[in-house]
Amino acid sequence: MKFIKTFTLIVLFLSSNNLGAQNLKPYILAAKSDASLEEISTVVKTNLTEAGLDVIGEYSPAKDDNRIVLIVTSDELKNAVKISGGLSGFASVLRVGLTIENDLVNISYTNPIYWGNAYYRNDYENVQAFYIAVTEKITSALSSVGEIQNLQFGSKDGIKEKSLKKYRYMIGMEKFDDVAKLNEFESYEEAVNIIDENLINSDDLIYSIEFPEEKLKLYGIAIGGEKGEEHFLPIIDILTPQHTAFLPYELLIVDKKVVMLHGRFRIAVSFPDLTMMTFSKIMSTPGDINEVLKGYTQ
Predict the structure, then answer these.
(1) With a threshold of 0.85, does the pTM exceed it?
(2) What is the DSSP string of 71-117?
């Protein structure tokens, strides 16, 4: 029985992702369940932990009671960051989205192969083995939480690996490494101390993960306020399955600098099929997010 289950998981994994042979999409719908959101959340957290993944954060984006995001990391993700350093700190976590849609709970997650290519770009081949391993772990963890779907979504046609490595929404817009600088300090330690102090009592801090030797620390932060998640998420998350695992947004300490992925990259790569008309409705959102996150660095 163990062999049959393992073989089935491998077939599901290969058919869904095909290790990059087909176009990639930002999310994977793992399963659907008729259990309650709270029940599914408990089961998913247990399964993720038993599969060797660490759940380091949880929240309801846009304060929506129909959504829960679980933030996970693993030895594979952390080892990949240690190899590349720098902006690869943004790739140190994956996100699992639980969403009530049509009276069922959709269990989805950020597609590791898609985000690995988008964030590591030409260095992805150096960490590909880690991404294959973590994909197998998360596929296994979510294989018994409901009716299995294992379907990529988030883009009708998907994006080729080669294009994803140099992704930008359109000519003139930012790529992955066109980050927005939030602040710069005298030392890495000063940056950590000030941001930690600003966030220690804040409900907006969803998680943090640190790589002291690489002088990297990533923070996942809920964006509140009238221009925050409650404003922009309903405008851009308009298709089903919903892109719940898009959030939270992040800031990253890289040595003495504090940066965020530019909104015109981070939002676009999460919603690559959105039209310019839809994006025009959130034209100020990249700047609004920048302003919120910058406030935590002062």
Answers:
(1) yes
(2) EEE-HHHHHHHHHH-GGGGGGS-EEEEEEEETTEEEEEEE-HHHHHH
